[in-house]
Task: inverse folding
């Protein structure tokens, strides 16, 4: 039986925005295979959690917000 204990993962708002966009794109492309449907379920759940938290996804400036987030999150060149 699975433990009901939860874990917490902390992300900055910028990291969460980048992760949300990746999950959204990953789901839209539907070109990946999963070893088990549970993997897909977890990704869907993560996407829903992020969607509820990120006000930027409703912004008309979403692409600009995403671009800024990516620039701040990526490794320096």
Result:
């Amino acid at each position: 039986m699975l433990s009901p204990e939860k874990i917490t993962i902390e992300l900055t708002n910028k990291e969460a925005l980048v992760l949300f966009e990746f999950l959204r794109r990953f789901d839209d492309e539907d070109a990946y295979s999963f070893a088990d449907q549970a993997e897909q379920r977890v990704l869907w759940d993560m996407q829903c959690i992020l969607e509820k938290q990120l006000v930027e996804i409703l912004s008309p400036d979403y692409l600009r917000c995403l671009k800024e987030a990516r620039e701040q999150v990526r490794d320096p060149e």
Notes: The helical segments are 13-29, 37-53, 62-73.
